[in-house]
Every structure is written in C-alpha cells, then in structure tokens.
Amino acid sequence: MFDLQRIYHTGMAVADIAAAQASIGQALHLDWAPVRSFEPLPFWTPEDGTHEVFVHATYSRQGPHHLELVQGTGAFYDPDRAPDSRHIGVWVDDLPAEAERLLGLGWQTVAAGAAPDDGFGLIAYLRPPIPGLLVELVSVGLKPVIDEWIAG
Fold this sequence. Notes:
The chain is an alpha+beta fold and 152 residues long.
C-alpha cells in the first residue's frame, strides 16, 4: 500500500553528477554517499522494451528524506525532460501489487527494473493521469542495500 510516510527520497536526473554534488551539496549543506555505478543496469520502458542503461547515482547522507542524484544514459535519464527528471521514491512491500493497483486507477508505467509482465523488478516508475508527478515504487527488499550505501 502506498504510504506518504514511506517516501525516502526525492530524485533528480543530472547531466554531471560530480558538478551537481558540488553545487547542490554546497548550497544545501549536504554530504553525499559514494557514487555507485550500475553498468549495465537492466531497464524497461514502453518505448524501448527491456534494454540496458548505464547509471551513476548517489544519495545525500542527511535524511531521513534523502536527495538522490542520478546521471544515466537514455531518454529516461535526460535531465531536460520534466517532470520525468524529478520523482519521489517510496518503499512498498509488494511492488507488483501496488503497481497493478495504480495501473487500475489509470496510471501509466514509465519505466521499471523489468517488464510489467515479468513483475516490474525491484523498482517501477509510474505517472498518474494528471501530469506533474512521477512516483518510483521501490521494493523494501532493496532497503538494506540502500541504507548501507547511504551510511557509507
């Protein structure tokens, strides 16, 4: 079930992760977890189907609500696309069930860790029928990994 209390990050796509860390970190007094590279990362979009992307990402150490910076390949990670370059990430216990519930309410899958027919993977980005918001459903199965990453 979607619960606003389980939002743990606001993410933004950036063209240069090091420059974004320096600029945003200094302005907002943020320290960053180490940048992690996912090369390649399996990804699914309606336009391209299942394919690979290359992603570099980090989270602010300050939280519990973190800022996520992501530099990646492909149109989904293009920082000039809005609102697709900004999203909220929320933990969910049953990602396929929550994604299907939202789809039943008219939401659209924008991207996911796997094709919808394959259960969406561990992450899924969905957009409501009204523009302006992108929600990343994140399986709680990733929580220990993300928590360790942020702790550094």
